[in-house]
Amino acid sequence: MLLGTVLVLLLLGGGPASAHAALRGADPADGSVVKTAPGAITLTFTESVGLLDDSFRVFDPDNRRVDTGEAGHADGRADTARIKLPAKLGTGTFTVAWRVVSEDSHPIAGAFTFSVGTPSATPPALPSTSVENPATGGLFNIGRCLAYVAAALLIGTAAFIAVCRPPDVRPLRRLLLAGWWALAGSTVFLLLLRGPYESGTGPTQALDPSGLARTLGTRPGLALVARLVLLAAVAAVLLWRRKALREGERPSRAALLTGAALAGCLALTWAAAEHASAGIQVPAAMTSTVLHLLAMAVWLGGLAALLTLFYRASVPSRVVGRFSQLAGLSVSVLVVTGVYQSWRGLGSVSALTDTTYGRILLAKLAAVTLLLIAGARSRRTVTRERTARNVTVEAVEVREEREARVPETVGGRAEGAADGRPVGRAAGTADAPAGGPPPSEKPRPPALGALTPAEDAQRRALRRSVLAEVVVSVVVLVFTTVLTGTLPGRAAAEAATAEQSAGLPVASVTTIPFVIGSGAPGVRGVSGKVQVTLDPGRVGDNGLQAVVYGPDGGFVSIPELRVSFSLPGQDIGPLDAKVGDRGGYWAADAVNLPLPGAWEMKVTVRVSETDQVSESERVEIGR
């Protein structure tokens, strides 16, 4: 049902991207050639990004690092990153490696090149753009998975005690404490690893004070600190209710409201720092994430509590029945919120199989299906046990009623009436006998699996199915952890589009060599090359800049330069670009190329009154 609903929603249409920033553009553009050194490098992303101390690394043509200023946002826009460059940058091909943190707390990185004047003869190799250190990333994912498990134990056990009201909660006290300590420890662990995780360094940098200080100033860091504060409040509530837990008292309304509020706030610390906090429909996504986490914790943590009681104490059937109803409600919430979050994360039907996020989601859906099958089996066992117990109770009531009836003698007293007891009571039942309950009391069903072999068999079957649920639930939590660190399918499509756009040079650069006068005997030829830049190199109006270089690679001035374009396949042209001398270079503000394809660009260079040459080169014009 979940998969089918997701497919229907995806077929209805998508929307803008959700979570994980992608590079939208760069200035200078990747692969571009600029005449003069730029004063700064500016990157534009699809959403807000956070900057690191080492967000930019710029290398010169000799692969030496360039001294740059501190990274910041351009014009106060959170979706940009800018670094200032030194005034005397030099010429050749420069390499830029960048790294930022997207709004949903996950780091992204990349690299590109641009050239000043002329490209280097040997382009430098791009530096590594690995998003994370493998050791740090693995440890960070382990910490996140442990945090999910701990939250399920803490919230789910507390909800089980409050709603199902087991008579003996002593075995569950240790489960509560284990959940609290595990969540507190994993939160501190994640807080320390947050800096190395974002910067892509090794786990040995976890204790670096500067990295920890920077983490405390970010939204994910503040969310982890808030989680620790909430856990301190949870500890205070547990101490307040310690005596009540020991004696099995029913929690008061104030305790229930306080616990529910703390559970909701704990779930919010995940929603505020993960995929739900960025992209489309943020308020709805965060609400859905909080409900999804709470339902997950109540169901899976309750399973762990029930399994603990099966092995440590007697479990009345009413406790199992209440948890069965609570689990059913949790599953309903999980399905509704899961459908929404799957639609929001995927964006298209093809993303289910074409993206890593979609494939992991399919694996998680398969695990959830197994979990539901095990849950349905447990529910059937509970229903059969309850039905059998009701039949037993009715049989006992009928037997007691028959034993309480004594035939009355016609015309006289019943036997036993001589001592003044009412007729119709069996002897020895007027006062509560020591051997049995008063007639007014109904027989109570014993604890699950405490009496008959059939009930004991049902208990063992229920214990096995609950154990299977717990095991599969751990697998589901592992898939959930991986999903939280994976680029959503909807964002992957946006990232591919943005990277394709950003990866193409904004300007199409073509270099055309020429030689004039070399054919006449005794005449020394004049050689050089013309570098023509079309911006953006696509259909429609393009800006054109042309620079003439001499044989030594320096700029030269010529009396005339003409540029024209033809599209032989469509019998279009020649179209005169009408370039003009702009004082050292030639340019035209608007050259209209109406169709995409392989255009022929003809350049005519005149170096004197009588000497000129024309050369042609193909230029690809995109859509």
Helix proportion: 40-55%
Count of alpha and pi helical runs: 13
Strand order across the largest sheet: 8-9-10-14-13
How does the major sheet shape up? 5 strands, antiparallel
- In round numbers, the mean pLDDT is 76
By secondary-structure content and strand pairing, the structural class works out as: alpha+beta
Poorly predicted runs of 5 or more residues: 10-19, 409-437, 439-451, 500-506
User: Which range does the strand content fall in?
Assistant: 15-25%
Total beta-strand segments:
16
Terminal CA distance reads 42 Å
Can you tell me the number of structural domains? 3
Rounded Rg: 38 Å
Order of helical and strand elements: HEEEEEEEHHHHHHHHHHHHEEEEEEEEE
Shape: elongated
Organism: Streptomyces rishiriensis
Subcellular location: Cell membrane
Domain CopC: 20-116
Signal peptide: 1-21
Describe the model:
The protein is an alpha+beta fold. The chain folds into three domains: 14-120, Immunoglobulin-like, CATH 2.60.40; 134-394 and 450-494; 508-621, Immunoglobulin-like (Sandwich), CATH 2.60.40. 46% of the residues lie in helices and 20% in strands. It has 13 helices and 16 strands. It has helices spanning 2-11, 134-164, 170-199, 209-216, 219-240, 242-247, 253-271, 282-312, 317-346, 351-354, 356-404, 453-484, 489-503, and strands spanning 23-27, 33-34, 40-45, 49-59, 80-84, 92-102, 107-116, 508-516, 526-535, 540-549, 560-567, 572-576, 580-581, 586-593, 597-606, 612-621. The strands form four sheets. Strands 8-9-10-14-13 form a five-stranded antiparallel beta sheet, with no helix packed on it. The protein has a four-stranded mixed beta sheet with strand order 2-7-6-4. It has a four-stranded antiparallel beta sheet with strand order 12-11-15-16, with no helix packed on it. A hairpin with a 5-residue loop joins strand 15 and strand 16 (612-621). Helix 7 crosses helix 8 and helix 8 runs antiparallel to helix 9 (317-346). The radius of gyration is 38 Å and the shape is elongated. The chain starts with a helix and ends with a strand. Residues 318-388 form the Copper resistance protein D domain. Residues 20-116 form the CopC domain.
